[in-house]
Amino acid sequence: MARIHLVVTAVLGTLVIANVARPLPAAEFPAHFIPPAGPRSDLTVMTYNVKGLPFPAAFNRASALARIGENLEDLALTGHRPDVVALQEAFIPEAKAIAGQAGYKYLAIGPRQADAAPSPAMADHDRGASDLARKASWLKGETEGKWVDSGLVIMSDYPIVATRKMAFQQDLCAGFDCLASKGALIAWIRIPGQPQPVAVADTHLNARSASGVSVARANAAYGLQLSALRTFIARQVDRNTSLIFAGDFNVGHDPDRMAAARAEMVTAIGSSEATALAGLAQPGTETTSGDLAAIIKRGKDKQYFRAGMGQRLRYNGIGVPFGLASKASSLSDHLGYVVRYSLR
């Protein structure tokens, strides 16, 4: 049982190389909340790993996941609900049902098990991925296929006009993280009054020590996953489109991971990172709250962003709508946070 528990717990970080789906519209549902009419000059985006793990990796998650949905719905009553939410670890139906519980009208779901393509014959430049495949361990869940989907969900109050998804190839992962069909999801969202949609992306990368393999092996997979993400974004989101890339990037404080994330997400994509900007704020501002300090210290949940050419997208603050004081830590092992962006 302990082994099974470890195997499925890994369900949090899988990834594999590129299987890109055709652009599709998002699902649409009756909304509980109607956004204010008229042009918008701002956008709020939440990233939240909700720990929607299947049994036996987690027990009795339904009530906690329902409460997350209720919390988001309650925020609408005060006008503070985020416009867009990117979820990670939304593996089980109760996690995907958060969108309906919270009243979001538009929903996009990331890669499924069938989207993780078999590993192709490796060229010379793919030797890193080839090494991962050749040294795969049954005991660490690396040869057992995909047990669950990507766990990625994007939900929005504004129309999602197109989506793209990408699953990493079968062997581009390390340890127990190889049991999920992870990759990336992009949703193009039409904001009232804005000349073109904003692209919001979501991902969840390979864990480090929690993967159950050596740090060197986990980090090798991590670097390859970041490279695949950068290529996917470059192909799908042109430089004229503003991009917000949220998710559980599992960076932490590992120097190799920090360097890889900086190279692939900041330098190559040309983005800034919201929690890094929040950490520069002066003492006494909202960004020095205990909740946000804990998020920054952990260093896993990120929002990278960049304005499209000729577009405006600026960081305008960050907050944690339900944090430790509201016992949110009992709902998930992560705290969700919301970034406010100015579009003018």
Features:
344 residues, alpha+beta, Deoxyribonuclease I, Chain A, seven-stranded mixed sheet, 26% helix, disordered N terminus
Provide an overview of this structure:
With 344 residues, this protein is an alpha+beta fold. It has one domain (2-342): Deoxyribonuclease I, Chain A. It contains 9 helices and 14 strands. It has helices at residues 2-9, 62-77, 93-96, 98-102, 127-134, 215-236, 255-267, 274-278, 290-298, and strands spanning 19-20, 27-28, 42-52, 84-90, 106-109, 153-156, 160-167, 183-189, 198-204, 243-248, 272-273, 301-306, 314-319, 337-342. The chain has a 7-stranded mixed sheet. A 7-stranded mixed sheet has the order 2-5-6-4-3-14-13. A hairpin with an 8-residue loop joins strand 8 and strand 9. Mean pLDDT is 83; it is low at 1-23, 121-125 and 282-288.
